[in-house]
Amino acid sequence: MGILERKIRQKENMRTNILAVALQLVKDEGWQSLSIRKIADAIEYSVPVIYDHFANKEDILFELSLDGFRLLQRTLEKNKRKYPDPVERLKGYADVYWNFAFKNPEYYQLMYGLGMPCCGSGKIKPEFNAFRDHIGDAIEEIVDKKGRLDAEVCFRTHAFWSVIHGLVSIVMMRCSDIDDSTMNKKVLDETVEAFIKNL
């Protein structure tokens, strides 16, 4: 390996390490307490080293949000292969989204701006729309099978996503007074069933 390749690899490793440490700090202390100084202290380097890899904290947040969207995308793809029937696939997507949110709350909060400003303004990437695209395809397939020529797939996709995101947000942001996860999942399942029935 040449000197240039080694430097590139070292830079990539440092960048990966910064992101991993930032995410761990968030898991330990929350998004609001994350700072460039804390990341530098945790990796035992000076602040300028962080700025060699990221312009500012918002760039770090943006990259972490992309990691979250990619993780969600991989899970959605597995679900897509698992369910050839679009109705079951759409139900599966709702479950994937729900489970992702509560298994990865730090990512979810960052990705969708829960309790914090959204990051990445003006830098929208395809990863941001993966869930919308997956559910849109399933909804379109369902309404086609039903012969609904007047179905507004875009509107129905937005409505479906809004309902699921709303339920997740209520549970995630009001965890102190809503603690029955079985009841919350039942609300999700019944809502998805009713939505699909009315497509």
Walkthrough of the structure:
The protein has 199 residues and is mainly α. The chain has 2 domains: 1-54, Arc Repressor Mutant, subunit A (Orthogonal Bundle); 56-197, Orthogonal Bundle (Tetracycline Repressor, domain 2). Helices cover 75% and strands 0% of the residues. It has 9 helices and no strands. The protein has helices at 3-29, 36-43, 47-53, 57-82, 86-103, 105-112, 130-146, 153-173, 181-197.
Summarize the structure.
Residues 35-54 bind DNA. The chain is mostly helical and 199 residues long.
Features:
199 residues; 9 helices; 0% strand; Arc Repressor Mutant, subunit A; 2 domains; mainly alpha; Tetracycline Repressor, domain 2
Q: With helices defined by DSSP (H or I, 4 residues minimum), what is the helix count? A: 9
Q: Indicate the CATH class of the largest domain.
A: Mainly Alpha
Strand portion: under 5%
Structural class by sheet pairing and helices? mainly alpha
Residue share in helices?
Answer: over 70%
The stretches of 5 or more residues where confidence is low (pLDDT under 50) are 117-122
Averaged pLDDT, please? 87
In CATH, the architecture of the largest domain is Orthogonal Bundle
Tally of DSSP β-strands? 0
The fold-level CATH name of the largest domain is Tetracycline Repressor, domain 2
- Count of all domains: 2
**What is the distance, rounded to the nearest whole angstrom, between the alpha carbons of the first and last residues?**
58 Å
Query: Which quaternary structure do these chains form?
Result: single chain
DNA-binding region: 35-54
Protein name: TetR/AcrR family transcriptional regulator
Pfam families: TetR_C_33 (PF13305), TetR_N (PF00440)
Organism: Dyadobacter sandarakinus
